[in-house]
Amino acid sequence: MIDLYFAPTPNGWKPAILLEELWVDYRLKLLDLTKGAQFTEEFRAINPNAKMPAIVDHSAEGSPQAVWESAAILMYLARKFDRFWPEGGARTDWELTQWIRSVPSSFVAFGATISLASVAQLFLRATTQSLAPPKSFRPSVFTFGSR
Ligand SMILES: N[C@@H](CCC(=O)N[C@@H](CS)C(=O)NCC(=O)O)C(=O)O
To answer: How far is the CA of 140 from the centre of ligand 1 (A)?
Structure first.
């Protein structure tokens, strides 16, 4: 079982979308960042940086494995479940890592709130079709609570 420590922000949605796409069982542990839930001793034991998202994989070999940083979580899950991470050696690893790292952070840095559907779509395209950037990629605006 995987615990996902989550709050509804773009970084939080990234592993949530991947867990859904992987169709694996997970428990959602909602963190209320406005109340400082990220600063509790219990959560700091999982992520000493006191930021979500984070996961704890209770089925990891040996002992439970905590993973934090959204990109690291995506990579961990893709590798663990052997999906969305194509074989291809170092070149593929670098290209995919670049996309995972650069897309969300660049758009957040630009001050835009990126559509999580667009991130997921980009991730899926990059991993299932080609590692080249999709020609038509155009993030749409995501607003919390509205669809
Ligand atoms: N680079 C990190 C950023 C994590 C991050 O900044 N999380 C924010 C919410 S999006 C957070 O937990 N903020 C709480 C705080 O800073 O106290 C990642 O991609 O996971």
So the answer is: 22
Strand partners, 55: 4, 67
Q: Is 140 a member of any domain?
A: no
In the structure, which protein residues have their CB atom closer than 6 angstroms to any atom of ligand 1?
Answer: 9, 11, 33, 38, 50-53, 69-70
How high is the pLDDT of residue 133? Answer: 43
Number of separate domains in the chain: 1
Low-confidence ranges of the chain (pLDDT < 70): 103-147
Alpha-carbon 91 to chain mean position: 21
Q: For residue 107, give its domain range.
A: 2-126
Nearest Cα neighbor of 10 from 147, 129, 143 is 143
Task: Name the token pair of 84.
Answer: 């969305």
Bond before 64 cis per omega within 30 degrees: no
What's the pTM?
0.76
Summarised one tens digit per residue, pLDDT across range 46-61 is 999 999 999 999 999 9
